[in-house]
Fold this sequence. Notes:
With 273 residues, the chain is an alpha/beta fold.
Amino acid sequence: MSGSATLPASLILVGAGKMGGAMLEGWLADGLPGARVAVIDPNPSAAMVELCRAHGVSLNPAAPAEPEALVLAIKPQGLEAAAEGLAPLAGPGTVVVSVLAGKTVANLKDRLPRARAVVRAMPNLPASIRRGATGAAASPETSEEQRRTAHALLASNGHVEWLESEDLIDAVTAVSGSGPAYVFLLAETLAAAGVAAGLPPDVAARLARQTVAGAGELLGQSPEEPGSLRQNVTSPGGTTAAALGVLMAEDGLGPLMRDAVAAAKRRAGELAG
Ligand SMILES: NC(=O)c1ccc[n+]([C@@H]2O[C@H](COP(=O)([O-])OP(=O)(O)OC[C@H]3O[C@@H](n4cnc5c(N)ncnc54)[C@H](OP(=O)(O)O)[C@@H]3O)[C@@H](O)[C@H]2O)c1
């Protein structure tokens, strides 16, 4: 369900910073004609101005028409201030796609009172290289066609999981939203452990970084489950098995990851209020 066929006929992106900019690049790469897009951002970067110019994207148009899709990628704390200007753009036929962390479908409908179809999405950082993982939930008024449009918009930046209930977004935030930081920490701690095992720090850092990146790439390309990839490189009684005996112990990585994800989920709930 991706590709330019299901991308909308008219689209307004509000907020062209890190996430909004990455999304715009993904849509253009997927073949969305720039003429179908308008970007609203009071202080666009020079690179964004150039991207818009090169693709014929309208930047800060004076009186934009109500679009088929309105994508919100401003900071969550900016919603209140932006809402009055945006409300006329989100009509009953518009699908609103928000990546604003912590802003619920109800919050968005309060701020955009004419909107019916609202999709709340939680992307993650690798969206910037089109390898993201996004969880998304739609308001009940969202039609199948609008859901396909939202899917195409989100899938330009990677994998999309549709959730049956918006209540699951906090868990998504805790797993894939915050997850890249856990993987970066893995590279850091593996490098530190390499130094403790006698490697020079720069050698340990390079080996750990490439190991995490290479294993991630392999996982991304392989049809096999992570568990079977792990078993494939673990000979009984060998060196990997010795390390996994520690990592997979009762007090090993499993319970630690469970506690970490639970803490992130709790915090996501608190921040959403
Ligand atoms: N980055 C991520 O990995 C990530 C992951 C998941 C979700 N998100 C969500 O993505 C959203 C954007 O995050 P970001 O990291 O991309 O932030 P960002 O780089 O600060 O981008 C936000 C952009 O919106 C602009 N803006 C502010 N007020 C606006 C308004 N009223 N109308 C139009 N544009 C306005 C900002 O301009 P100024 O700089 O001039 O204020 C900035 O260019 C957040 O809600 C965040 O929760 C981000």
